[in-house]
TrEMBL record:
Needed cofactors: Mg(2+)
A Gene Ontology term for the protein's cellular component: cytosol
Biological process per Gene Ontology, one example term: IMP salvage
PANTHER family with a match to the protein in the record: HYPOXANTHINE PHOSPHORIBOSYLTRANSFERASE, HYPOXANTHINE-GUANINE PHOSPHORIBOSYLTRANSFERASE
Entry keyword annotation includes Metal-binding: yes
Species of the source: Gaiella occulta
InterPro entries tied to this protein: HGPRT, Hxn_phspho_trans, PRTase-like, PRTase_dom
GO molecular function, one term: guanine phosphoribosyltransferase activity
Protein name: Hypoxanthine phosphoribosyltransferase
Length: 185
């Protein structure tokens, strides 16, 4: 075990499965957007790893931009009120926008983000999330592309962090039970 892996309880989605699924999503997105160009909007920081790999499987012309957001309220739960820490550089009016997320939990953050983006009149606005925890959903948000549905456990790796660590793991793991602070994030 490398020191980066201390704290991993178990591997939930091995590296090879992540890679295969990312390629499948890329093929599906490339087919759906054939003849159009795409703007991938990544939500910092967790989505960076997924987005970089996904983009390299796309065969349509694409650009990227990023947003950084922070949720108000208790550390363990999304309040649904989101502060934009870094906004997009690009004007998305008339663009085909695909929001790329690492994980959707309650859906409150994404729901707020989608309202903000929709108001800017993109030609198309869809979401691609690597992971979703359906059990935790509090608000319906249409997610067009989903990598994996996972149970309600705190996951780390492939961009996902616990206290900013573990993002560099090439697989999705579950945080060791000894480290779970009774929080869900
Ligand atoms: P909501 O509840 O608004 O929150 O959908 C989504 C955000 O919550 C974080 N999150 C996690 N981060 N492991 C993480 O590292 C997890 O299991 C987890 N569940 C939720 C994440 O920041 C996501 O964007
Ligand atoms: Mg986090």
């Amino acid at each position: 075990m490398s020191s980066a892996e201390q704290g991993v309880g178990e591997i939930l989605i091995p590296e090879a499965d992540v890679r295969t699924r990312v390629a499948e999503l890329g093929a599906e997105i490339s087919a759906d957007y054939a003849g159009r160009d795409l703007l991938l909007v990544g939500v910092l920081k967790g989505a960076v790893f997924f987005m970089a790999d996904l983009m390299r499987t796309l065969s349509v012309p694409c650009e990227i931009d990023f947003m950084a957001i922070s949720s108000y309220g208790a550390a363990t739960d999304s309040s649904g009120v989101v502060r934009i820490l870094k906004d997009l550089d690009i004007n998305i009016a008339g663009r085909n926008v695909l929001v790329v997320e690492d994980i959707i939990d309650s859906g409150l953050t994404l729901s707020y983000l989608m309202r903000s983006l929709r108001a800017r009149k993109p030609a198309a606005l869809e979401v691609c999330a690597l992971l979703t925890k359906p059990e935790r959903r509090e608000i319906e948000v249409p997610v067009r592309y989903v990598g994996f549905e996972i149970p309600n456990r705190f996951v780390i790796g492939y961009g996902l962090d616990f206290a900013e660590r573990y993002r560099n793991l090439p697989y999705i793991g579950v945080l060791h039970p000894d480290l779970v602070p009774g929080a869900t994030r």
